[in-house]
Amino acid sequence: MTGGYSPRDRGEDRAPFIVEGAQPLNGLRQGGAVGVALTWSAGGGPDQETTRAATALCTAHPGSAPCS
Fold first, then answer.
1. Do 13 and 29 meet the contact criterion of CB atoms below 8 Å apart?
2. Which of 32, 37, 16, 36 is CA-nearest to residue 64?
């Protein structure tokens, strides 16, 4: 999906994301255009179960991009 946030909503904790366009993931994945970035605050990371699930998902679907 492509889009963004309304300028008046930027900085809000739960600002709505406005979708302007979408493409099927199959075509993007085959072209190598899919990426995921996970970020969190120091001390506020995911629990162990979530970390294991994310690791298993990445391991089950290897690609050309590195996991770091």
1. no
2. 32
CA separation for the pair 14, 3 (Å, rounded): 16
Give the mean pLDDT per block of 10 residues along the chain (68 residues).
82 85 78 73 83 86 67
Beta strand ranges found along the chain (DSSP E) = 2-5, 17-21
Q: Which amino acid is at 3?
A: G
Task: Give me the residue label for tokens 């008046």.
Answer: 8
**Within the chain, where are the H helices?**
25-30, 48-60
Q: Which residue in 51, 48, 41 sits closest to 59, CA to CA? A: 51
